[in-house]
Amino acid sequence: MIRLRGSVPASLAPLTVLLACADPSLDVAERRDPVVYGQDDRQDVFAVADPVWRARATRSAMALVPPDRLAVDEAAGTVGLEASVYGEHFGLCEGQRFFEQLRLGRCSGTLVDTDLVLTAGHCVPNQARCDDRRFVFEWAVEAEGEVPTLTPADIYECAEIVRTVDGTFGGRRLDFAFIRLDRPPPAPYEPAPLRPDDGALPEGTPVTLIGFPNGLPVKVAANGAVVNPRADVRDFFEATVDAFGGNSGSGVYDDQGRLAGVLVRGEQDYAETDAGCDVVNVLDGERTAEEGAEDITYAARAVEDLCLQGYRGEHLCVPGDQTWCFPCEADADCRAGWTCGGFAQNARLKFCRAPCAEDGDCRADHACAEGGCTPRLGPACVGPDVWVREACGRNVAPVMACPEDQRCAVVAGEAACHPAPPGDRCGAPIALAVADQIIEGDLVAGGFGAFAQGSCAGRGPEVVYGFTLDRPRPFTATVTGFDTVLHLRRGCDDFEVACVDDSDPPGDRGSQIQADLAPGVYQLFVDSYSAGGAYTLEVAFGESPCEPVACVPGEARCVDDGVQGCAPAEGDGCPAWGEPVPCGRAACVDGVCVAEADLGPPDQGDADRGLDQAAADATPADQAQPDAAPSEGTLDQALADVGADAGKPDATVGDLGLADGAALDRGVADAGARAQGGGGGCRAVGGGVQGGVWALLLLALRRRRGTGR
Question: What is the pTM of this model?
Answer without folding.
Answer: 0.59
